[in-house]
Amino acid sequence: MDEKQNAMSNTANWQQASENTDVSDEMDGRYLTFWSENQLFGIPIAEVIQIVGIQKITPVPQFPAYAKGIINLRGNIIPVIDIRLRFHKPEQEYNERTCIVITAIQNKYAGFIVDAVDSVIKIGEENISPPPDISSDLINGYLMGVAKAENKVILLLNNGKVIYQDTGKTLSKI
């Protein structure tokens, strides 16, 4: 079983298990990691609903360029954001490793197109640093922290800000 299939299978198990509070507690400190242009990112596994292969995306007029459109996933219409474009990286043709990570923030779904899923890892609070503060005027608003785990540096994303920053919408979580 390749990494993408394994991650997709594991995600289905987490979905079922998240209904059990004991297992939910086990998800604390766990992150799904994925690649986008040779950078490793992580999002809390508790916010991951499912990982699906790339599929037909319906463009929507007046969506920002990074929002590729919407997909219909079992009757749910989900907006899809290309992480590369969201972070002002060059667009890349999708391949067999490209997938969509479906997330939920305050009962709102969004899909992130990523180059490849890496793994699910547990990261202790002691291994997470605040986002770098480059100057008093410039802070990376998409990051909630930078982690060091398994000899990797992982940029931990604030999903709400990835989705809503610059759109004028707000979430209480942001």
From TrEMBL:
SMART domains per UniProt: CheW
GO CC field: cytosol
One Pfam family matching this protein: CheW
Region (Disordered): 1-21
Lineage: superkingdom: Bacteria
GO annotation, biological process: chemotaxis; signal transduction
Domain CheW-like: 28-168
TM helices/strands, residue ranges: none
PANTHER family cross-referenced by the UniProt entry: CHEMOTAXIS PROTEIN CHEW, CHEMOTAXIS SENSOR HISTIDINE KINASE-RELATED
Name this polypeptide is given: Purine-binding chemotaxis protein CheW
Source organism per UniProt: Hydrogenoanaerobacterium saccharovorans
